[in-house]
Design goal:
Layout (H helix, E strand, L loop, with lengths): L1 E7 L6 E8 L6 E10 L2 H9 L7 E2 L4 E8 L11 E4 L8 H4 L9 H5 L11 E3 L2 E3 L12 E5 L3 E4 L5 H4 L5 H13 L6 E5 L3 H12 L4 E5 L3 H9 L3 E3 L9 H8 L4 E6 L4 H9 L1 E9 L13 H6 L3 E4 L7 H13 L9 E5 L3 H9 L5 E5 L1
Parallel strand pairs: 11-12, 11-14, 12-13, 14-15, 15-16, 17-18
Antiparallel strand pairs: 1-2, 1-4, 2-7, 3-5, 3-9, 3-18, 5-6, 6-10, 7-8
The structure holds zinc ion (2 copies).
Length: 367
């Protein structure tokens, strides 16, 4: 059938709405009519860094919509179900079986390559492939063929435009706190960069009963959002003679028990590690493909028994984590709804400009 996608025709190019062909679902896939898709930084960083031969390509990995067709081997998903789409996994390897879908043996193939394991693509135009299958979905589209492992069935009464980001951004930030750090009331959490991921981490830390949550960011609007969620905002530019490390240590009584790093700026990552208390743990979520190395103060790390570790999607299994987050949200313990700003799909390039300029936290594109 024909559908409309926001396609990128080459590295760094703008998103363009275009009609393409989309296949029906294979045995392990479902066809989803997309209602809304969140825009996440990974859509942009890969658009800008993937090689030219991996284009034209459809990004989008925070889709939400309604199931229109179900593949022969798919269980637990029916036509008409409302769904949130998240990362894809094989569901069979040891990591998947252990609930660690982000570390699935087939992560690269199922989420990033742009085609199915047999080399085919669900989208095509003029007989040629349009690469897709991004996070098992490529949901910058009116219709997406999603791998069943990407699909999480949700309560149909929920507003799909509000919950689309639960598939990636909100899950990564919440998971870093709820699954990785698992802080308690006696701990402190410092979050570096409070975009959508960082704000979800702030909300999850408060939901965990953490008394002292510190949010570090250069943008006033983001700091205000973090403060509304219960964090103490720190603007590095407004500290005068005091360093960020000194300020975070002061606010947390000697150093944070946990740090959550979302900026991917090497110097910030170093400060985040230095701001930890003795035996503190820094969870690294941000990644900038163009500068993936960062400096570490090895003396500080060793003498204080600090841990710096990475995390894919906050160590979440979407099948477990999305429903858990939605329950917390319904109970008022994960108040993320106000972070969403909706845009018509045709305004995707304005949405990108707005989020990069810090005018909005989480753009969600709506058909
Ligand atoms: Zn697996
Ligand atoms: Zn993402």
């Amino acid at each position: 059938m024909r559908t409309t996608v926001a396609v990128v025709n080459g590295p760094g190019a703008e998103f363009v709405l275009e009609a393409v062909e989309v296949d029906g679902p294979r045995a392990d896939e479902v066809l989803v009519r997309i209602v809304a898709t969140g825009l996440c930084h990974t859509d942009l960083s890969l658009r800008d860094t993937l090689p030219a031969e991996m284009f034209p390509r459809v990004f989008g990995h925070e889709g939400a919509g309604v199931v229109e067709e179900v593949g022969a081997d798919v269980t637990g998903i029916a036509v008409g179900d409302h769904v949130v789409l998240s990362l894809a996994s094989c569901r069979g390897c040891a990591k998947c079986q252990a609930g660690q879908a982000g570390y699935c043996e087939q992560t690269l193939m199922l989420n990033y390559m742009g085609f199915r394991t047999d080399g085919s693509t669900s989208y095509s135009r003029e007989g040629g492939p349009v690469y897709g299958h991004f996070f098992g979905q490529s949901s910058f589209a009116r219709h997406a063929v999603a791998l069943a492992s990407s699909v999480v069935v949700v309560d149909p009464s929920l507003d799909l435009t509000r919950i689309a980001p639960y598939g990636c951004g909100f899950m990564a930030g919440s998971g870093a706190v709820l699954n990785v750090a698992q802080p308690g009331p006696g701990d402190s959490v410092a979050v570096y960069g409070v975009g959508a991921v960082g704000l979800a981490a702030v909300a999850a830390a408060r939901a965990s009963g953490v008394g002292t949550v510190v949010a570090v960011d250069l943008q006033a609007r983001r700091l205000e959002a973090a403060e509304r969620l219960g964090a103490i905002g720190v603007d590095p530019a407004g500290l005068g003679e005091t360093t960020v490390v000194e300020r975070v240590k002061e606010l947390t009584g000697g150093g944070a028990t946990y740090g959550i790093e979302t900026t991917a700026v090497p110097s910030v990552l170093k400060e985040a590690a230095q701001s930890l208390g003795v035996q503190g743990t820094l969870v690294v979520l941000g990644l900038d493909m163009s500068r993936p190395e960062f400096p570490v103060d090895a003396i500080d790390l060793l003498q204080n028994g600090k841990v710096v570790r990475g995390s894919v999607e906050g160590d979440s299994d979407p099948q477990e984590m999305v429903p858990r987050m939605l329950r917390m949200n319904a109970e008022g313990r994960l108040p993320l709804d106000d972070l969403v700003t909706t845009y018509p799909f045709g305004e995707i390039n304005s949405a990108i400009a707005d989020v990069l300029a810090g005018r909005v936290v989480k753009p969600v594109l709506v058909w």
